[in-house]
Amino acid sequence: MRRSLVALALCLALGPVPGAAEAIGDAERGATLFARQCSACHQIGPEAQNRVGPRLTGIFGRQAGSLADFNYSKSIVRMGADGLVWTLETLDAYIANPKALVSGTRMNYRGMAEATDRADLMAYLRAYSDRPQDIPESEPTARKTDPALSPEILAIQGDPAYGEYLASECQTCHQADGSDQGIPSITGWPAEDFVVAMHAYKQKLRPHPVMQMMAGRLNDEEIAALAAYFATLQ
After folding, report:
1. Do residues 223 and 133 share a domain?
2. Which one, out of 6, 50, 61, 87, has a CA that is 20 to 30 A from the CA of 207?
């Protein structure tokens, strides 16, 4: 008993243990959110199995699309090959808006809008990671969500003709006829989806280095123009 009291006093004197996980949310509330919004498609825990979606045990630190026994969409596999790893930052963005991070994902979920809800859910998921004491690796305030776009950016009406002029560089890789030959099609994308995706690259939430470079060279009006042009293509 005396040893326990001495150890407790020493811990209080020294403060938090270096490297210990910071609180990111209410895991108990996150379990409720998981049961309500995620459990129809996903399982988590030692006995978890793949269902409509992959099992989420050990999700933190896992490369996207990397479970050998689950049939992922091409989009998730491609993003994993590009370097997408499920971290506090990227998982937060995906839960907020799956299609903002991974276009073409089969995850039929509109997203969890409230940052507090996402934090609680990730606190619950963290309990089933391989090394929960190492997460988060940075201050919670350093986390990004899906691209922070003002209503003004989303309201920009792009000029399709200007977008066509700008599109020649895009179409050296993306096929204008909409065919998918190892590079995803962007023909016929809804304009808002295009804008959100490009800003996700610009803010380095999406990992592809070439697309990050390309998006970084475009201003808001140019992104809107490209979105308007590709939305008109059949």
Report:
1. no
2. 50
- Pairwise CA distance, residues 145 & 92, whole Å: 6
CA dist 11 and 227 (Å) reads 56
Structural domain harbouring 169? 151-232
* Pairwise CA distance, residues 108 & 116, whole Å: 22
What letter would DSSP give residue 63?
B
- Tokens (6 digits) for 195: 């804008």
Q: Which residues, other chains included, contact 71 with Cβ-Cβ below 8 Å and sequence gap of 6+? A: none
Output 95-100 pairs: Cβ under 8 A, ≥24 positions apart: 95/121, 95/122, 96/145, 96/146, 97/146, 97/196, 99/193, 99/196, 100/146, 100/147, 100/196, 100/197, 100/200, 100/205
Amino acid letter, residue 229: Y
Residues 153-197: tens digit of each pLDDT: 889 999 999 999 999 989 888 877 777 767 778 888 888 888 988
85 pairs with which residues across the strands?
63
Whole-prediction pTM: 0.63
104 shares a domain with 43: yes
* pLDDT band at residue 204 under the 50/70/90 scheme: confident
Tell me: pLDDT of 66 over 80: yes
Decide if pLDDT at 32 tops 70.
yes
**Contact call for residues 90 and 61 (beta carbons, < 8 A):** no
Query: Do both 48 and 111 map to the same domain?
Result: yes
Confidence at residue 205, expressed as pLDDT on a 0 to 100 scale: 83
